[in-house]
Amino acid sequence: RQMRALAVVLVALGLASAEASERPNIVFLFADDLGYGDLGCYGYRAVHTPNIDRLAEIGIRFTNHYANGPECTPTRTAFLTGRYQHRFGGLECAIGTGNVGRYDEAVALAEKHQLGLPADEQTIVKLLKSVGYRTAIFGKWHLGYEPQFSPLRHGFDEALYCIGGGMEYFHHVENLPGYPPALYQDEQPVQRKGYFTDIITGEAVRFIASNRDRPFFLYVPHTAPHFPYQGPDDFRPNPLPLDSPLWSARNAPLATYDAMIERLDRSVGEIVAAIKRYGLLDRTLIVFASDNGGAVRGSNGPLRGFKGSTFEGGIRVPLILVWRGKLEGGKVSDVPCATFDITATFAAVAGVQPAPEKPFDGISLLEPMKNGGAPGLHRTLYWRKPRGDTIWMGVRCGNWKYVAKQTGDKVQEYLFDLSQDLAEKTNLADTHQEVLARLRDRYKRWEQTVRANRRR
Asked: What's the whole-number mean pLDDT along residues 153-181?
């Protein structure tokens, strides 16, 4: 069943000059903290996920897909912009609850009320909107608390969203004294009754029905299975106490965690059913992915590490593409790719291009159809995530993987051959010093090229 990059088949795109009515719908279903081993179709844990597994059966499942960051905010920045998040300043680490910066630059920006993705940046949403797409986000934002950073400023026509990183699933508040509201609609806090996964599912189905006669971009970034750990049957009259262990990534009851994933899977099923109900399956590209690796109580299958690190468990995540009649289904691709490649793919199918001064860092996942080539097999991907005085770094080039963790002046370095050591058990840094030095140098040159600094 394995499919190498050369076997990806895309049939008759012809969209670069298409009229708006001919452009495909785009639906992006984005899980939060879902691990590489948390789905049945990835074969590592027996969570009941028939709807997502069905997408893998009729679409293309990627086994070497990476999140652009090992946490929420960085990956979401890379997706919206199609570029490394480091280019925008302050967004290399997840924004803390209540609009808290977690490393020096982010702290400085938060103090100036500038911590977020600036509204004047190019986004895939604005590009799609410019050619006639109706756009909506229902789910998690986490790209800035201030109104100047809201989804509406980035091209969305409709927006119902969790503003920060974690929100109580029933009462829709953050775990801070006074329980500040975390659910917003079009820049204003709102109250809704219900389990958040179900609320955004209902909004997505409504949006599909209302826009079935025009091209639309539907972005559904779930909060599940991110903490707090609350299943759909766990409603209580009052919000979780601030000191509840369910607010911690280390305290997920496995049965609750599974229930959250299974409700996420049901959401996927309902959204796909709506696409089918209105006869849109042949003209809708559906993408399912996760924003980073699983947290410590999730499953990353055979991979080392968890969310927050640049070991494989922190950054390698599920990705499934479905487009009936256009993408050959039931296939598996091992092409190394990252979140910003999803962005470039959306632009390619819609026939839009980034501004010349703001080119995508990602490449379209449909590129292998061209000239029998396989971009991605030998490309280099990079990671950098600071928090406090610790910086996680990473480079993947071919089968080689460089990982470094710097705390203060102390640096721990690792080198792995992923073709022989997927679990990253054997550190080859001492025996392959030339490779280590080459990847370290590449990382340093990349870092100097992409890192912005909005404090200046």
From this structure: 98
Question: Residues near 273 by Cβ (< 8 Å), separated by ≥ 6?
Answer: none
Please provide the size of the chain in residues: 456
**Distance of alpha carbon 181 from alpha carbon 183, whole angstroms:** 6
Per-residue pLDDT at 11 exceeds 70:
no
| 142: annotated active-site residue | yes
Is 72 in the active site? yes
Sign of the torsion angle spanned by Cα atoms 182, 187, 188, 194? negative
84 touches 78 (CB < 8 A): yes
**pLDDT tens digit sequence for 372-393:** 444 445 789 999 999 999 999 9
End-to-end CA distance of the chain: 52
Catalytic residue, candidates 65, 86, 93, 142: 142
Query: How far is CA 170 from each of CA 167, 191, 335, rounded to the nearest angstrom?
Result: 9, 10, 39
Given the residues 72, 93, 162, 337, the one annotated as active site: 72
* Bond preceding residue 225 cis, omega within 30 of 0: yes
Kindly give the interhelix angle for 254-277 and 50-58, rounded to the nearest 10 degrees: 50
